[in-house]
Every structure is written in structure tokens, then in C-alpha cells.
Amino acid sequence: MSGHPTQGTPLLRIQDLCVSYPTPDGLKEVVRGVDLSVSRGERVALVGESGSGKSVTARSVLRLDSEARTSGRVLIDGQDVLEMNSKEVRRVRGARAGLVFQDPLASLNPVKTVGWQITQPLRIRGMGRREARRRAVDLLGRLGVADPARRFDDYPHQFSGGMRQRVVIAIAVIAEPQVLIADEPTTALDVQVQAQVLELLGELAQEKDMAVLLITHDLGIVAGFAQRVAVMRDGKLVEEGDVDRVYASPRHPYTRALLDAVPRIGDQPGRRLGTAAATADPVSVSPEGEEL
Amino acid sequence: MSTTTPVPTRSAGLRNLLTRKGGNKQGHTTFVDRAALGVAGLMVLLALVGPYLAPMDPYAVDLAKSLTPPGSEHWMGTDANGRDILSRVLAGGRTTILATVAVIAVATVIGTLIGTAAALGGRIVDEILMRICDVGLSLPAIVVALGLAAAMGPSLQSAVIALAATWWPGYARLVRTLVRETRDAEFVESARVLGVSRTRLVLRHVLPNSLSALYVQTTLDVSAVMLVISGLSFVGVGAQVPASEWGAMIAASRDTAITAWWTVLFPGLAIALTAIAFNLVGDWLRVRTDPTLRTGGR
Description:
Chain A has 11 helices and 10 strands. Chain A is of the alpha/beta class. Chain A has 2 domains: 9-96 and 179-187 and 207-284, 3-Layer(aba) Sandwich (Rossmann fold), CATH 3.40.50.300; 104-176, no CATH class. In chain B, helix 2 crosses helix 11 (262-289) and helix 7 runs antiparallel to helix 8 (198-210).
């Protein structure tokens, strides 16, 4: 799945995004000038270690943190999300941009049936119960849930981890958003299920021609999924490019360090894995993320 | 609940009603649950039609028959004034149960509204509402009832109002804590990401995940409220003298309790039975409102 994308106008365009949070010692800048765009039908991965600001970037696209101070622009299909009032933001959420969360159990409402939750994005936009149910059952089947019509009335705790993540994906895509952001969608799953879920996500995205932004710290899953990759560190993009190019010849020392930290099948036995902190260029950025 | 006896599949209709969606995989609605629901239902029915079932006039005084022991004529005997205790228990159920239900219902509604508002309304709203709760919690029901009785005249009505006014802060506190726990849950956020409105978030996502503990608390409180109402009747600010109210009946018979046990036993049994039944219903309700308990874990 590494064919080159059909380039069009970017559906999601993040321009010079800065996000900071108020802390007891003043504003702390977490995202510091990120530029990133994702076109229709394109799959882009945003990678970085925890604390690099990748999740915050994703959350700002849907304006999820009310206490965050943002500047810059986040354009979805030409409209700036950061300029919208709360009513307009609500119209974007779910319908034009969907978000898949990391922990499938925590992100499902335990007292509502899976079907109720999958149909909710349609129901709150006025679709009839029967039509919504039909679509949800179709989608569940499409996502590889066996006997979807019966499972429709089950509760989240009756699903296995992998099945739950499919439900979460179904919820995110049922209203057919053009932009899909997946924030570490496979971190909570075991390796075998990870691959299945990612493959489904990819197929679905291709089918609906969605723009997908995959947030992850796992470089191993990026290669098979994304066409482009952006590497983030301390609130800034340090490298961006085609997956093949970045993997073959990383330009930034930090990217090289990250790639070095991934174990490979062809490795010499006893090869020491790199650690990003040890090998990253220590001069330009302090551990607190301050420019020196 | 300790008993998990499999239930005989006799009345399929009732069974389906109780198990909803037929998804009761572990037989969680047990015989005990059913009995409790039955008794609680019976008590509510009693509140509706009890007075019409009374075989005799619950207020007819017949001093010649004072303190008759239970027998074929008076199944539960008579009290010191010769009034038929069975009739008084049946008629008194309405007073006691309706008053109790009224107190709980009013306190629950106010408590849920205030508690939810405090949990979601920001720090200033929270602070103001919780201080009001503190005032409410610091007032003993009996003092408020005495004050109201002085202002409005002693009646069951003022006892109910006084009790509801002092009971809701406890619920508000409980709901506030429960809602605060739920409001930051990831599933609430993930619903927000879908464009769910604030009202719907609260009604469909936060509250249903918060209130199961409240249901249990309210059903457990039925017995407590019932006893306080009886206590208020006892000190003279609740149900007034000729009225048959279970607590008032016991209070009125306290002098004869040693020689004529039936004067306190039957109204006492009625209180105890109702209290136990509602406690068990509370337990059942807790299981029914939590799908994880209802269908068993994975």
C-alpha cells in the first residue's frame, strides 16, 4: 500500500499551528509552528515519541481542548476550524472530520449498546432509526464483525479488544467524514490485530477517498500504511517526506535515531538498538523543549 | 445478592419483562428479586387501593372491644380504642407510602438537578450550590419540620415538605461526585468528537453512567424516610391523630405494646417488609442499570 497518491488540493491543511497550555508557571508551548497537509485519498503518518505534541496537533484539528491557546490555521476543505464558533465546530466534528481514539474500551459508552453508539452520529443529524441501523449493520459487516445484525444489540464489554476497535472505527466513519484522524488506533491492541485493524482502516479510507492522518509512535506500522510521513519532535516537524524516501535515507538525525530504535528481522544478532534520546542532536533542543 | 438460584420458567411473560431483551445470561433476576419486586409492587398497589380493601372502618372506635387479640373477627386484633388494626394497616399504607415516595421523588429530582449543575457548571456555580447544600445538610429534618409546622400548621404535608427540603442535599452531593467522575471519561469526549450537543452529552452519556449508585441510594432510603416520617408523626408534626399512618400507629400504641403485642407488631411488620422489599429492589435496579453486571463479564 505504498503507491503514490493522486495529488489534489489538500483536504486538511495545518498552517503554522501553535498550541500552548496555561500552567502554573505561565503558558507552555506544546506545538510550535507545524505545517502539514493531507490530500483527498492520501494517508499521512505523524510520528514522534510521547510528549512530542502529535496528539495535541490532532486534537486541535477538532478543537477538543477548550483551555488550549491556538494560533495559525487549520483548514478543512478550505474552512478554518480555529475561526469557527462552537456550533460550526460541532457540525465539523463527526461529519467532516472523524477521530479514532487510542483505547477502544474507554472510548465506548458502557451502558449503551454498540449499535446505539454507531448510529448516534447519524441519528443526531436526523436520520431515521431503521435507515441508520441498516447502515450500521452494513458497516460492521464490512469491518469484519461476524453476525453484525445480532452483535448490534450487544454492549461494548461483550466485544473483544480488536472488535471494539472496529466499533470505534465504525463510529468514526459512519457519517462519512472526509478527514479521518486516527490517534494511536492500534496501540491498545496486540500485534496481530493491529495489522488487521490498520488494513481495514486503509481499505475504508481508500473506498471513501478520505484523507487520513495517522498519529503513532510506532514506526513499524507506518511503512505499511502511510504514503507520507512527518516526524515530530518537541512541537516541531523535523522531517517530512515520502515514506520510502524517509526510511531509506532519513535526513534529520532524530529521524535516523528513531529508525535505529526499531528492531528489524534482518538485524545482526546482538545489534544494539539505538535510543532516540541518546542519539538525537543534543545541541539544538534542551530536554524541556526550549531552543538553546 | 447471595441467592442466584436459577429461575423456573413458569411465567414467560413476566420473565421477559424482567429480563428485558432476553439477554439475562446469568439469571440475574432471581427468585429473591422477584419476591422483592412483588412485595414492593404490592405495597404500591396498597397505596392506591388499600383504603378500599379495609374490611372495617379504620376510624370506628369501639371501646368495648379495646385491645382484642387477633382472632376470626379482627385478624390483627384491635388497638386501645377498639379500632380494627388490619383496616388501619391497609388504610395507613397509602399515607405512609405516598408520603415516602413523595419525599424521595422530590429530593431525587432536586438533588439530581443541583448535583449535575454543580458538577458541570464551573467552579463558581459549584461553590455556591455546595454551600447551599451544606446549609441543607446542617439542618435536622425534625427542626425544619417543627418550624414548618409552626408556620403552616402541623400536617403530614408540612412533614413531607420539611423532609424533602432536608433530604435533597445528600443526593446533590452524591450526584455531583458521580457526575464529576463520569464527565471526564474518554467516552464522553469521544461522543463530543462526533458532534453530540452538550444537552445530549449530559442526558445520554454522563447521567446514565452516573446514576446507578443514586438509584440504589434512593431505594435504600425508602426505609429511612419512612421511619423519619413515622418519627415526625410521633412528635406530633406529621400525620395527625386519628389518621392511620404506620409510624403513628406504633407511636400511639407504645403504652400497650407490652401487654398487647399485636398493636405494634402488624404496623411494624408492614414497615419492615416494605423497607426490605425496596432495599432488594434497589439492588436489583443496580444490576439492571449496569450492563456489565447484567450480562456478565467477558
